[in-house]
Amino acid sequence: MTPVKVFGSVAFTNVARVLVCLEEVGADYEIVDIDFHVKEHKSPEHLARNPFGQVPAFQDGDLMLFQSRAISRYVLSKYRTDEVNLLREGSPEESALVDVWLDVEALQYDPAMSSVFFQHRVVPALGGMPDEGIIGESVEKLRKVLDVYEARLTKHRYLAGDFLSLADLSHFPETYYFMEMPYAAVFDSYPRVREWLEDLFARPAIKKVVSLMAKDFSG
Ligand SMILES: N[C@@H](CCC(=O)N[C@@H](CS)C(=O)NCC(=O)O)C(=O)O
């Protein structure tokens, strides 16, 4: 069977999200690097894959997809087995809870984290000064999300329930970068969240993608 293709560098969080799903299900895949330095992501070839000129894009035969969470859902559905059912397909209640917490990750957790990352890492790399006001507001937003997570994870082992799901995995790429920033200490007040993250980061699939991300960064 031809391996599926993921277009985009592993160091990008949205690409890493898709790769961790492919690793969890043990699918064969090929990474096709898209060179941002020469604006390959805005080339006609790549715009045909992702009309927003972003990564990731994903190809499985004639099927072309974009949007990392939609791709992740496709991968987990296509390669689902009785043992690896990370969308909880077959149970409307559990799969609805996976959707709820995946939305929380996409709409609350990720924006707060990526705003800190943008100010702390991207703005200086572009020659600017980080806006400490924006960082402070974003860390405050993150704290509010973590309050909710701490309460939820005190009742359940994982976010959607007592089972691992895409909702958990989807948190790893942004968190991986956040933990290397000085603001990581915000997590110290959330012992259950820390335990949950330790559990996630010990997974072979996440360890594998983290090693690819580190390699991608070191060039
Ligand atoms: N919601 C999209 C976001 C994709 C995205 O923002 N990708 C970034 C890299 S992580 C990108 O390609 N940025 C380049 C640009 O927007 O021009 C997803 O989940 O795939």
Which second-level CATH architecture of the largest domain applies?
Answer: Up-down Bundle
The count of domains is 2
Order of strands, widest sheet: 2-1-3-4
- The tally of helices reads 9
Assigned CATH class of the largest domain: Mainly Alpha
- Kindly state the mean pLDDT as a whole number? 96
Any low-confidence stretches, pLDDT <50, length ≥5? none
The name CATH uses for the topology of the largest domain is Glutathione S-transferase Yfyf (Class Pi), Chain A, domain 2
Structural class by SSE content: alpha+beta
Distance between the termini: 30 Å
Based on CA inertia axes, which overall geometry fits? globular
Largest sheet, in brief, is:
4 strands, mixed
What is the radius of gyration computed over CA atoms, rounded to a whole number of angstroms? 17 Å
DSSP strand count: 4
The level of helicity is 55-70%
GO biological process, one term: response to herbicide
Function: Conjugation of reduced glutathione to a wide number of exogenous and endogenous hydrophobic electrophiles.
EC number: 2.5.1.18
Domain GST C-terminal: 91-217
